[in-house]
Design brief:
Helices cover about 70% and strands about 0% of the residues. It is an all-alpha fold. The protein folds into 2 domains: about 35 residues, no CATH class; about 130 residues. Helix 2 runs antiparallel to helix 3, helix 2 packs parallel to helix 4 and helix 3 packs parallel to helix 5.
Length: about 170
Amino acid sequence: MAGAGDVPGFAADPAGQAQSPAIVSLRAANKVKYQDETTLLMDATIRCEALHLPFFESSWNRFSPDERTAGFIANIHKSQAGFATILLSAATDATLPAFTKANRDLSMSSASTYADVIAKALPVAMRQTLKTQIDQAAPGLAAAYPAQYAVIAKALARTDCTGLCTVP
């Protein structure tokens, strides 16, 4: 059975609350057990998010500053956090030894293919934080996938900021 150390990110629930070791172990085991399904779902999710980003951006650009309500801005922030989370998950899944090579490769392909589109939608500080999180969670990523890692690193190193990146 996979342990908590085998799969990063399961020590806390989505709200950041610590989880019991039994729950952590079960979540990690399920991630490995259902890796074929979850890897395909993650790939589809990244693709869908990347395809929807132009819609989000056009919505932001279409509204005047007076029409950009707090709720609209909060939803964009939630979306940005979701974009960052799925990119982090795809990149870190690519280094999980319990995953098949095919699933690791698909995870990395998804992350690198859409990294630039996703990074463009994130505030510069979030890009930098995400790069640090990826490096900390998956220290072997650059060695395992040098070309794809370079694409992700370049995307997250962008300092230009237009469209959704400008959401306060």
